Amino acid sequence: MIKRLFIALVMVMIAVIFINLVANYHESTSLSPLGAYYADRGPSEVGAANLVTAVVVTYRGLDTLGEVTVLFISAAGVGLLLRRTRRTQDDEDLEKGDRAEETAGVHKPASEIVETATQLLLPMVILFGIYVFLNGHLSPGGGFQGGAIIASGTMFLLLALPESHISRLLIAITESLSGFSYVVIGILGVIMAGGFLDNRIMGLGTFGDLFSAGAIPLIYVFVGLKVGFELSAVLDRFRKEDTGPL
Amino acid sequence: MSFLADIQISQIVLSSGLGLILIGLWGMLTQRHIIRMIIGFSLLDTGIHMVMVSIGYVTGGTAPIINDAVPMAEAVNRIVDPVPSALVLTSIVIGLGVTAVMLSFAVRIYRTRRTLMIDKCTESKG
Q1: Chain B residues 48-107 within an 8 A CB cutoff of chain A
Q2: How many Cα neighbours within 13 Å face the side chain of A192?
Q3: Nearest-CA residue of chain B relative to A148?
Q4: In this predicted complex, what is the ipTM?
Q5: Which of B76, B78, B105 should be substituted to probe chain A, the one whose Cβ sees the most A Cβ atoms within 10 Å?
Q6: Domain boundaries, chain A
Q7: What's the CA gap between A81 and B105, in Å, rounded?
Q8: Which one of A53, A74, A94 would you mutate to disrupt binding with B, by most B Cβ within 10 Å of its Cβ?
């Protein structure tokens, strides 16, 4: 009872703070100095039409590398937590329970319509993901969004064809290679241009072209592949049947 | 209804975001079901993203992408702040990672305890 009262009290106090925040909020009418700097210098320095991409990949590239690392660690953590180690009596009892649920009709196979639609749409979903991360420097989108779209394709596949096999080895190799190439591009920036993850190791090209903005499209391809395969691996781990290591 | 005319767009986003934060916090504090607590966290996370996006809004601004609609010379006066948008992108990805780890902990708890009610997991309670 006291706990409930305490929670209510905390909520009311936070609500009072928030109401004051909203009441005294005034929309800004001009950019912050940092935002103005990026808007003013970004297009000529980085060559990316999408200024958010310029900030994420180049000006704050190190943060993005950290972000990719956090995602990698969480994917590894999910893999570690959801693996099945030694088979104990408990596990076998649990699996018996699972099978009983299955026979009780909890897990029906997907209908023919869903299966056919998946086979038709899956290549398009993956192609759209690739489009989104290739155009990350020109339009809304980028490596993380494209990767998430590719992973949604995997989700689609797992929902329609739950028995389908996803190669863990392929996922591991692609993911490691993309992450490694990302860091190599960063180090090339130190050697050939102004600093770590500087995108000017390649020519900036014509502003607004697909192949422009230096190394940004390349970095986003690696980020997109890495995120897409990583999230696919996470989704695969959440499946009921764990098919052993790799 | 004159006070409605004074409400700015970003103020609506800000107050909905703060509302989501309150709902999520309440859910995390009061619910005893692990999945509901995770949903509470997701709501809190989304609320924080909305607050961050609304802070970056500039009156009358548009997306920070230079094209025919926003020429380079006018960019400074026409776009919203790109920095909070970039931060929110980072924040969404990290929120996703945290949620995935929380859900896999939930799966582990369900495998060993056959329940998702936090009250039944009393072994580690001091």
Answers
A1: 56-59, 63-67, 72, 75-77, 79, 81-83, 85-86, 89-90, 92-94, 96-98, 100-101, 103-105, 107
A2: 15
A3: B93
A4: 0.82
A5: B76
A6: 46-82+112-238
A7: 7
A8: A74
Torsion angle of alpha carbons A173, A175, A176, A177, nearest 10°? Answer: 80
User: HEC string of A155-206?
Assistant: HHHHHHCCCCCCCHHHHHHHHHHHHHHHHHHHHHHHHHCCCCCCHHHCCCCC
What are the residue ranges spanned by the domains of chain B? 8-61+74-120
Please answer yes or no on whether B83 and A35 come within 8 Å at the CB atom: yes
User: Tens digit of pLDDT for each residue in B80-95?
Assistant: 888 888 899 889 989 9
CA of A51, closest CA in chain B: separation in Å?
6
What are the residue ranges in chain A where pLDDT is below 70? 84-108, 240-246
Mean predicted lDDT score pLDDT of chain B: 84
Shortest CA distance from B111: residue in chain A? A94
Instruction: Name the residue with tokens 């026979």.
Output: A103
Q: Are B39 and B27 in contact (CB under 8 A)?
A: yes
CATH code matching the domain that covers B8-61+74-120, chosen among 3.90.180.10, 3.40.50.2300, 3.30.70.270, 1.10.287.3510: 1.10.287.3510
CB contact under 8 A, B86 and A50: no
| Residue linked to tokens 């859900």 | B103
Q: What is the pLDDT of residues B59-114, one digit of tens each?
A: 877 888 887 777 777 777 788 888 888 899 889 989 999 999 999 988 888 888 78
